[in-house]
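Moderator note: this is an archived Q&A kept for reference. The question asked for a predicted structure of one protein chain; the sequence and the answer are reproduced below.
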Amino acid sequence: MAGRAVWRAVGALVSRPGAAAHPRGYAKKPVIKGKGKGFVKEVQKGPEVCKDPAILTTHAMGVNIYKSGADVKLKEDSQYPDWLFQLNLGPPKSLEERSPDTPEYWKLLRKLHMWRNNRLAKTKKF
């Protein structure tokens, strides 16, 4: 009997137009003006791209975070620390390439184990 009452209530909500469209407590969607066929949306412009090879080889373009001021000039390699040139710029090392004595190895092992368990959990049936 209770099931019939629920279905009647759902049917009443669905049959009345606008009953479920504006539930109590929610604001109406704002009306957008100027939306027509002749309206052209203004395209945002990105930053200017420098194509001068002399400046590109002597300055770090796009590093300056301030609105005013010039880009940072590059220094000689001897003025930078040695570890900067030893950074791995390629793809990250796989689990087999890492040493089991490091914390990064165990962190990656845990991460891969969780990914595997999540994939297996998705395939389990109820």
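Archived answer notes: The first helix runs from residue 2 to 15.
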